[in-house]
Amino acid sequence: MMLFVQVAMVLLSVQASDISFTMDPAAVEFATFRGEEVISIPGGSSPFVDGEPSLPGMGYSMVIPQGTFLESVQVEVLSKVEISGIHNIAPVLSVPLNQSIPVIIPHSSSYSRGMFPSSAIHDVNTGNKTGFRIASFSYVPFTWNPSTGILSLVTSARLIPVVAPATDAPQLSLSDNQVRTAISALQSVVQNPEMLEAYAPEIVSGVDGAPWIVIADEDKLSTLQPLLNLRANTHGSAFKSTQWIYANYSGRDTQEQIRNYLIDAYENQGLVYALIVGDGAPYGTGETTRISGLQIGSQHFDSVSDLYYGDLDGTWDGNNNDIFGELADYLDYYSDIYVGRYSTDVASRLGTMVNRTVAYETTAPSGAWQTTALLAGAYLWPGYTGARVCDSISVRIPASWTEHKLYEVGSSHPDNQIALWNAGVSFSSPNGHGWYDGIFWENAPTSLISGANYTQLTNGDTPIVFHSIACLAGNIQDIASIAERLMFAPNGGAVAVMFNSNNGWGAPPNMGASEWLEIYFAQTLFVDEQYELGVANSVSKDDFKAGMSIGMQNWVLQEMNLMGDPALRFIAGQMGIEEGQGNPSIMNPVISSPSPNPVSGTCAVSYTMPVTGIANVSVYDLSGRLAATVHQGLLSEGQGSLSFDASSLPSGCYSVVINSETGTASTQMLVLR
């Protein structure tokens, strides 16, 4: 259920917790590219558009209270140094991975102006992630004068986020399962995870919808039944035919009808995962595929983006021009549910994918393959190969794993990847040039994995999870891209594929948006242990969006679709999994919005306790500091109400939190004077 927060017309700006920034000048690295300097800092990237000076910044993200937004970020510089020498900074450069670096890289008008940048704070954003409010920004500690070449670095600063009420912020009431899944996902995304419980959306009981649903033509039900049976045990499942959706939900086209159903199921029926069946058909005419009209500079996306079904805020057409996914359409890019696709309309191919998925979770063989990875890095540009992103993935793979690294060096490369995949590999990242038909080495034999050699795969009982930066390998608008072929090949291939539906993007000599997203995915899967692949795919994008600002980022977030079941659990995370474990029943207390709300004096705070026990009911301000205590001690099972006098609190937004032995719940309170 979705409500909208009502606040007074007076803007109440409240400071959130300060952030301490420090940067050791020794950590700043300089490289030369075409006679100009490229600066890099650990974990940093440039938030500027192509052609502007490529000064790097650091990203920050936080969960903030319901009904608020990040209004601004104030900067208090504590110490600053001038870096010796005269500096000539190279411009930001974004290059498709299947194209050459331009001979001449244009510079923006910023090179002929004064100090750059004019502001240290960039990309101040607030978005919604399954009912949570996520705020983010980028801080650039460098300033550069193009006319003098003087470069300065802030070595210490206080960053002060200012959070304010948002009159149009959606406020959802979601199921306990939805909120708990989101809290688990957001632990690694926000930098104040300790506030997730306090700032969570309201939890409602009695939600009777299935957390996992599959959408397909009604004639596919019998083929999908084995997977429906499995998910009934692990999560709770339901089948929704496209015919039923079209008869019961409105929309300007079939894609919007499907999305409107998903919004309803998400807001009112406890939906967490959606598996969509169908392909793009020639030129994107499939009735379940949304073609995004995103344009960045002169680049047109015009490809399938299943994020349309995962990011359920707004209409994806904010300017009402019937073109979806544009920069002017107010996307926040955070996934509210987890979406995957079986990209086929052919029953036999669908059956292969269903049976492979079920076997992967029920009868997969044991052995070393479960902890074996294959990383392949092909030549991309002069002096730059996919080995760089592979090495960044490698440091995130557990040390106990076996890793095969196949890298192109000079004019040669290993060519035993098919044999290694057949011998047993659970995860593979093939990084090279891409096209609809495959991923390629620069030098002969060129097929890394393509239509020319994928039929040689015989790993039917040890299928692979693939992730890659390659261009177009996940495009499903043409017939049988390599992503689709790996999924439905009967004798071997993949159980899940995450490839780009359009061009991957680099930023030579630094890593580009596609490489960074692949690193975020490895971090999410191997380090944060988000083993459900739909969750890992979406949360890695959430984390990338919240934690970094870089050119072509929105493009990359739209194109990295998941081919596979979003609830599929990665083989390395299946140890000890029992039937039904994916849908736990957690008995948590419930706390309702104070009455009245907004409040200026005394209000009533209603609650429900699942069992009698000790509970604390507390009030926290926007920074997470304890502002007042409503109750400490025993609360009886069932419903009750507490009286609270808010007259001593300053005007602003607060969280009211109940914390008991059985769990935690929270709601929001607005105090007005």
- Poorly predicted runs of 5 or more residues: 1-15, 576-586
- Strand elements, count: 41
Strand content: 25-35%
Number of helices: 12
- Sheet with the most strands: spatial strand order: 26-23-27-31-32-34
Distance between the termini: 29 Å
CATH topology of the largest domain: Rossmann fold
Please give the domain count: 4
Shape: globular
Largest sheet: 6 strands, mixed
Tell me the CATH architecture of the largest domain: 3-Layer(aba) Sandwich
Mean pLDDT: 92
CATH class of the largest domain: Alpha Beta
Structural class: alpha+beta
Helix content: 10-25%
**Rg estimate, integer Å:** 26 Å
Question: Would you kindly provide a written description of the structure presented here, covering whatever features stand out?
Answer:
- With 673 residues, this protein is α+β, with helices and mostly antiparallel strands.
- It folds into four domains: 174 residues, Immunoglobulin-like; 127 residues, Rossmann fold (3-Layer(aba) Sandwich), CATH 3.40.50.10390; 221 residues, Rossmann fold (3-Layer(aba) Sandwich), CATH 3.40.50; 82 residues, Immunoglobulin-like, CATH 2.60.40.
- It is 19% helix and 33% strand.
- A six-stranded mixed beta sheet has the order 26-23-27-31-32-34, sandwiched between helices. Strands 2, 3, 7, 11 and 12 form a five-stranded antiparallel beta sheet that branches. Strands 16-15-17-22 form a four-stranded parallel beta sheet.
- β4 and β5 form a beta hairpin.
- α10 packs across α11.
